[in-house]
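Title: Request for sanity check on Pentatricopeptide repeat-containing protein prediction

Description:
We are preparing a figure and want to confirm that the structure record we downloaded matches what your pipeline produces today. Could someone re-run it with the sequence below and paste the raw structure tokens into this thread? We only need the token string, no images.
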Amino acid sequence: MLRTGICPDNYTLPYALKACVNMKSLNLGVSVHGHGVKLGLVFDNFVGNTLIGMYSAFDDMGSAKLAFDEIYMHCVVSWTVLISGFCKKGDVYSARLVFDEAHVKDRGIWGAMISGYVQNNCFKEGLKLFRLMQLSGFNPDEASFVSILCACAHLGSLEIGKWIHRYVQKVRMLISVKLGTALIDMYSKCGCLDLAEKVFDKMPDRDVICWNTMISGYAMNGNGERALRLFGEMQRSGIRPDNVTFVSLFTACSYSDMANEGLNLLHIMYNVYNIEPKSEHYGCIIDLLSRARLVEEANAIVQRMPILGSTSEEAIAWRALLSACCSHGHVNLAEAAVERLVILERHSGAYVLLSNAYAAAGRYREAQRIRKMMRSRGVEKTPGCSSVEINGVVHEFIAGEKTHTQMDEIFELLEVVKKQLDSLQ
């Protein structure tokens, strides 16, 4: 087009920029950007918004912000694309600054920021912004509901999740596959399998993700038989299972002490559906065998395991074996697993598990030596975290912290509980 002397316009450049993203070529995108500068088109919303999206796709948020600043008059799309770009890179702080600067906010801008918080595990911030969105007079759309349901699932905030479900029913919003799956996930993670089943049964259409979510719900709640029964229904319905399906099934069998069924599923996965086992599958199978006290068999599988795609993937299987060795007192095997894990990753979990295994076996000097080794190598243990919902409010506790406003009352009640337990002994 350029060689024939035809001048590109504000419709031509966006499609060329999208082609550069699909080709994963930042250099070509920069070249097209240069043509836009020469032709004076970077001030246009259509071209500028696509430039922001193009640079965001390559995680070059500095250039994306410059492209944003060059636009003569920003529209809601400009703000939304830039917020989404920062969130995709994990920079929710910069995303929130852009959100606060937006002169006009529509549901898309609110939804982009809420989704960004949830995608970056800032679940409380996502819930707060969702409430602020409602107070500002905006009705949430399906995407916002899906994001908030995800936050509720991770925080265990059942009451807010139920309220969202009632709201969706009140406004007669269609329960799409995506929204229905989010509801099933939320109810499952909050321990309400009966409500998850009701949503699942009423859905007119289900994709493989929806089936996987329901199977995973049974798995995390320790109901292996129902998970296997649902897998049979999934097969009869004509839905082809994928990698995630079998991870959930192996987990269900592991939590329900169904080692033989789990090994049979491994056969089906490999021979019927031609799915090559990945690190997640190996980790689940090793956990499955370990719970059945077949630690030597689990070790044999790890030793025969092919070289996986990355060290982090291989570490998943070795961590599962290490956990099993520590649970059943196989200290020598645990030592070998730690030696391999230390090579693969720098994580406190391996050291802590081995130290605990030594302590359980009465080898306190070795346990102390491992703890000293952690300190000398600068490996810090990540503190544990838990949360509980009371009257719709989620309270979060981190091991060792004493900043909760009701900490004195909590300690007093713990003391009462301790005395009652002591009196029972």
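Thanks, this matches our download. The first helix runs from residue 12 to 22.
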